[in-house]
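Intended use. Records such as the Transmembrane protein 234 entry shown here are meant for training and evaluating sequence-to-structure methods. They are not intended to support clinical decisions.
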Amino acid sequence: MILGLLAVGILWGTTVPLMRDGGLASEGACKASALEPKELPPHSPGKKPAGGLVASVLCLVRLLIQWRVLVPYLLNQCGSFCYYFLLGEYDLSITAPLANTLAFFFTFLTEAIMNKALPSAQEILGCTLILFGFAICVSG
């Protein structure tokens, strides 16, 4: 159970910052491809401009074919698969909070590494308390 929870926590926690970073890197492509307000066809008040849905879908497709988004997304989905397996095998009241706790912890670590910033004393205390709570739940 602990290895499964660690796998879910690592897969979820490390991929969320990577997906966000990849999405921000490719955000310019979506903005550049979107219709500018002056280019929108005339429409009556209360109606959505034509092409809004199409532009949104194209932006989503462009985002998902970027490797910086796609690879972390697929790894994140592997974590979700492991999570649902764990939910079927172990007690829900323990599995769900522990998986999310570890995901939070690994997200914190990944963001600290990506930002090349040392965590503050409060952040270290918070992570220590998270790990202490995890240890209590697993040992009991």
